[in-house]
Amino acid sequence: MKDHDSGKLIAIVEDDPDVARIIEQVLRDFSLRTIWYRSAGDLLRRLRTLSPDLCIIDLGLPDMDGIEAMQRVRAQSSCGILILTGRAHVSDRVMGLELGADDYVLKPFEPRELVARVRSILRRRENTAAPGTRQVAEFSGWRFNLGNNTLSAPNGEEHALSTAEAELLKVFVQNPNRILQREKLMGTRDLAPTDRAIDVRISRLRRKLEPDPQSQALIKTVYGAGYLFLATVNWPEEGNSGGV
Questions:
Q1: C-alpha to C-alpha distance for 184 and 174, rounded to whole angstroms
Q2: Mean pLDDT within 150-166
Q3: Phi and psi (nearest 5°) for 85?
Q4: CB neighbour class for 182 (10 Å; exposed up to 12, middle 13-18, buried from 19)
Q5: Which one of 58, 69, 130, 173 is CB 3.0 to 4.6 Å from 40, fit for a cystine?
C-alpha cells in the first residue's frame, strides 16, 4: 500500500549541512520530498512559489532568529511548522508554540521521532481539510472554514489559523458544550503530564476569539477535567445546527 504521506514536500531550514543531510535522508526513506535551505532568507524568498506542506525550522539560524523566521513563514503560508532546536530553555519552545509552531523536536534528536512528528503534523493537516465532511461552522458571529483553516470574525476580518490551531478549533466545533480532556484535544500527539502544548494552543485561540482572553466566554477551563466550548454551532452548508 502506498504511504499516504508520499510525495509531500518538506522544506528544511538548517545551517548545519550534516544535520540537514540526516533529516533529508530519513524523510526520503519515507517517500517524502525535501528541499534544503541554509538560511531563513533563502526560504522566505521562495516560499510563495514553493508551497511546502511543512517547514522544519532550526531556531539557531545565521541570518535571522528562528522564532522570527517561523512568524514570517506563518504570515505567508498555512503549511505545518516543526521547530528544531538545541536550546534547552522551555521558554523558547513554549514561545514557538504560542507563535504558531505545530510541534518541536530537540537536538540531538532520534531520527524516528523526527519522522513521527513530521507525519503526525501532515496527518493533522490532512484531517483538518478532509473532503466529504462538513466544511463551514458558524458560532457566536464567527465563521470557521475547516477546508482552508480560515476564521472570519463577526466584523468580517479574516484570520489564517495554524494547523494546530485549526485542529483544536475543529474538535471544539464538533463537540460544543462537552467537557473535552486534554488528551482528546491533542489528537495523535503523545502527551506527557508536563506538556504545556495544549495550554499554549488554548491561549492562542482565546486571544483570537475572546474580546478579553481572561473572560473564558467561549473556551472555559474546567479544572481537573479539561476544556468546554460554550457555543451553539451551526453548519449552514447542511442546514444543521448544534454539534456532533
A1: 12
A2: 86
A3: -145, 145
A4: middle
A5: 69
Under DSSP, the state recorded for 143 is E
In 16-159, alpha helices (H):
17-28, 40-50, 66-76, 90-98, 111-128
What's the pLDDT band for 127 if we cut at 50, 70, 90? low
What 3-state DSSP class applies to 142? strand
pLDDT value of residue 54: 95
Euclidean distance between CA atoms 153 and 189, whole angstroms: 29
Domains in the chain (CATH in brackets) are 9-128 (3.40.50.2300), 136-241 (1.10.10.10)
Distance CA 154, CA 64 (A): 36
Write the pLDDT tens digit of every residue in 60-84.
899 998 889 988 898 888 789 999 9
Q: Which sign, positive or negative, has the C-alpha torsion 66, 68, 72, 75?
A: positive
Give the Cα separation of 143 and 52 in Å (integer): 26
Quick check: 97 and 168 in contact, CB under 8 A?
A: no
By the 10 Å C-beta count (0-12 exposed, 13-18 middle, 19+ buried), 109 is classed as: middle
* C-alpha–C-alpha distance, residues 15 and 1, integer Å: 35
Helix 163-174 to helix 197-209 angle (10° resolution) is 80
Q: What CA–CA distance (Å, rounded) separates 234 from 178?
A: 16
Element (H, E) at 207: helix 197-209
Residue 57 has what pLDDT?
Answer: 95
Q: What is the mean pLDDT of the chain?
A: 82
Confirm if 103 and 83 have CB atoms less than 8 A apart. Answer: yes
